[in-house]
Every structure is written in C-alpha cells, then in structure tokens.
Amino acid sequence: MAEKLLEIKNLKQHFNVGKANEVKAVDGISFDIYKGETLGLVGESGCGKSTTGRSIIRLYDATDGEVLYEGESVHGKKNKKDLKKFNRKMQMIFQDPYASLNQRMKVMDIIAEGIDIHGLAKDASDRKRMVYDLLETVGLNKEHANRYPHEFSGGQRQRLGIARALAVDPDFIIADEPISALDVSIQAQVVNLLKELQEEKGLTYLFIAHDLSMVKYISDRIGVMYFGKLVELAPADELYENPMHPYTQSLLSAIPLPDPNYERNRTRKAYDPAVHNYADGEDVRMREVSPNHFVDCSEKEFAEIQEHLAAKK
Amino acid sequence: MEKILQVKDLELSFNTYGGEVKAIRGVNFDLYKGETLAIVGESGSGKSVTTKSIMRLLPEESAEFKSGEILFGGRDLTKLSDKEMQKIRGKDISMIFQDPMTSLNPTMPVGRQITEPILKHQNINKDEAKKLAIDLLRLVGMPKPELRMKQYPHQFSGGQRQRIVIAIALACNPQILIADEPTTALDVTIQAQILELMKDLQKKIDTSIIFITHDLGVVANVADRVAVMYGGKIVEIGTVDEIFYNPQHPYTWGLLSSMPSMDAEDAKLYAIPGTPPDLLNPPKGDAFALRSEYAMKIDMEQSPPFFKVSDTHMAATWLLHPEAPAVEPPEMVIERMKKFPGSRYYEGSAN
Asked: What is the pTM of this model?
C-alpha cells in the first residue's frame, strides 16, 4: 500500500456555531490521501466538498477533527515559521480564473508572490528565470510575464493559476473545480496539463468537481459527498461499476453522456434519504464492503450489500 | 415538416472601439415545428448572439445587422420596430437564460413575475391571470403553488428558480422557446430534472426549442437536430445521430474527442490546440484551419461552402470536396462512426 500523505480524521466544519442558523457544512468526514494519487471529491453544490478542501488547507479553522499532513497536524498550534514551511507544501487552484488573479498585478508578480514570501529566489534575475520556467511548464511563454490577467483567455488564466501554485514547489495541490469555468475544448488542455505535471513532479491532487466524467478520467479514487458527509469512497472504476450507496447511484444515473442512443434509454434514479429508514441511534458509518470500497451504511445495509456482491460473483 | 423560423444568410457585427467585430458571419438554418435544435460551440462562437438577434435583445447602438433575414410568421424580424417586437417577445418567442438568479426580479414576488407576461399579452383580468399562474407553477412541478406565488426568488433553490423562469417563458404558450444554457448553473441531478421537465412540456404545448449549450451530454439528451458553430458560422448541422455518430467537420471531431467517455481508458484526452479565432480580424479561409491538423492549403485561402452529406446533414469543410484526399478521423470518432449505418466505418448493427 502506498504511503499516506494526508489523513483526515473526523473533520467537522460548522459555521455560525451556537446560532439559530448554524450550518454543518462538513460533518465528521474521514479519509486518507496517498502519495502521488488523485483523489476526486464529487457531490452537488452545498454538499461541503469545497469547504472540505478549504479546511484541509486551513483557509478555515476546523470546528473539530484533525488533518494530519505526513503525520503532523495542520490545524494544531503553529508558530509563523512552521506555518510558512507547511504552506509551501500545500497549494490550491481555484475555480474562477477571473476572480483568483489580482487584476492589478503583472503575471510576473502574481507568479513570483510565493517565491518572494518564501525567499526562494537568490536575486532578481533568478526570480525572473524561475517565473519564465514556470510559464513554460504550463505551456505559456516568457513574453507573457509582463502582461496583466485581463489580456489572457480563461484557459490561459487557469494555466497562470497552476503556475502560481507550482511556484513554491508543493507536494500536494487542492484543485477546486479547476475546469468548471472553461470551454469543453479548453478543459481537455488543462486536464492534460495537470496529469503531465503529476507524472513529472510526483504531485498529489485533491480534485474537487461536479463534472463526473472528468473526475473519473483524472482520479484514482473518488469520494462522494452528500450533505456534509462522505457516503461512498472507492477506486474510480469500482465506483462507476458498482455504486452501492443510493445517492451515488442517483448521481451516476443523472450524468448526461455524449451518446444519443444511451440517452434515449437512460433511466434516472432519484435519491430519497428516507429509503434508509434508520432507527434512532443506529450505527451508521463508513464500512468496507469490498477491498478499498467504503460505503456509509448501517449494519443491516452492510449485510445486504455483502449479499448483493456475493450474488454478483 | 412545417418551418416555423428561417434564418437566412444572417450577418451581424458589433461596432467597438477596437473596430468591427464580425460576430455572425453568414448563418443559415431552419427551425421546424415541435423540434429541439441544439446549437453547440465554444464561448465566442456566436451561438448566443445568434439567438439574441432572433429576440432582438442586442444593444442597438453597437450591434448592426449587416445582411440576411430572420423570417417568422411571414415577417422579417430584423426589420420590425421595437413596438412590433415587443408584441412577439414573451408571447410568440420567449427565452430562458443561464442564471435563474439574475433573470428573476429579486424585489418582486414570483407570482407577479409570472402574471406579468400574461396580463401584457392576453386579454384577461388579474384574477384569471393569477389562476393561470398557479396552474403554470403546478405544471412545472412546484409543490404548494398557491403559497409559493407570494414568495420572493431568494426563497427558492436554484432548480426551483429555473422552474419559475420556465413557467414565465411558457406563460403565453410560445411557438418558439429559446433556452440559453438553461442548466449550466445547476447540479447534475437538478439538471436532469429540468431537462426532463422541458421535454415533457414541449410535448404538451408543441413548442419548438432552440437549445444553446456547450455540454455535449445535454445535447445528446435533448436534441433532435444539432448545429455546431465555430467562429461566427455554422460548420456542421444534422440530426443528433448524424452529428454524434457520423460527424464530418474536424471541429466536431475535436469536440467529440475532447470529452472523456465513461469507459475511456487512461489515454491522454484529445485537446483542441490553440484558441478561438479573433473575430476582429476573422481568418480568410476556414476559421478552424489554424487549429486543425487536417487543414489543407485551400483552407487558408477560401472559406469552405456547405457540402451535403445527406438530406438532413451538411458540413462546411473542404475535406468533403470530391477532390480532397481521404483522411482518417481521430480514433474516438471512428469508434462512433462504427455505430452509424451509412458511414464508411459502419460495422453492422449497433445493438
């Protein structure tokens, strides 16, 4: 088994705690991320997938639970120096390439910001060289360094966002819907780039998205979230072939595919949380139904899934 | 089949400080009664501008009809006055936009927003209009419509808001419904519900739909026919099966191959290289030539005419010229063509 890079243990992120409008955006989720893998996180808007990503990188202070990065707690007390060291290892790429780049800064300074903060460049010419290299890595060229973000197209801006994340040489990147704002023809360019970079630099990704076909394509494992909880976690192919949680099944049945014959015969499954019919205090948690395939279920459902899987074989 | 709308040689430009942006460069298509025509293409390809020009929603000070006509009910919509247009908008032709939050008025209860077009276009009193609005809400699947009438847009979820927008659009039983990315802002599960709703309603009131989207999965789900736009022109048009299983234009090939299929192995995704053309200075020949590995010398010099593939299928690419060399489409496209009787890669029955 690969080495664990990140362990998320019973992470909770509640907003407006103690008030009437308390929101349990993330309500006790646990999973591990292994070195060099891509973990996809899917779910409908408001299910807490982005909040999970933001809590992991400490953009929010978690309400409860732990995030361990190489065994070290992310949310624990840290002095500025430790925090800085840690920030270098984890970076984020955001959804909206228009809002995530400062319109008043030149590309050179946007990308070099991390380099400056962490003092990675020896002198001005070294800094320049690093930015040029980064631009080349993401498929732009050095003439772009002196331009402003508005001079770029959406796909190019997302490349700038990737270059900025790569500038501090991180090990782990959280990509929060990095392609949702892009055209289909450009999405493939960005996804290919992310994959290439992963191979070259041995990066680990947490890939948050709602486009399920793209998630399957890029991810090794996929977690499905529903209302602040992880309901299913499995290797990508396994999840698509044997979805066990009724929510996952409903989600998969809703994806439109570019295949008219398939679309004419599709049957959509709706998910109603009432189907579980859990008794009060019933022990519902993630259980391993087959190797590496976890489903949020009760003892009874677990037995049913086991039966179903046995019948399939 | 009865033609309900005809767009003929439409050319439209925007006059900007930078010069003349040729957003639509000769678009031709017909819309038949009761069908759904999907228009696909990337941002800037002119798909939204085309439909907004049908609705005459473009800013008059910068948008200029250069030539062509839009025939609806025997009249040319490009020549109508604002007043005449207002009688058509919302009654005979109505529109659904992408973002249901910005297309509803946040300071007005939704009931009044639904009765607004009814009172404007139909000769009935307020009480009757209210009843009609409640019926409409019920029709689009809103629970407790009487109570919901008095609520404001922020009290609804995204999917419910889009249902309200659809109710408003359908209030006067329009002959044409233009839906501009109506599900792009919604989740897949909600998207599936809205698409089903639209298909149901279409059957009930027999309206024609122009559906704009860049999601090919959605197109496969809703469309009867598909028009692919690129650089201000339609480059390929045909039935949904013809476009998905027997595409002819290299841009359509690129679009179809850049989507990962659910059973795709870990092969690299096909990415269309480069960026869309600059319509301030549109390329002389085929606008897609610079991004196409199939481009020939003539593509740089002359823009291709439409070549007929079947009675319902046309594509504008020099590859279809009798003297053009035969080329192999990308592998993923050949896989699709194997399922289509009549294509040169057909391998017997698909099922």
From this structure: 0.84
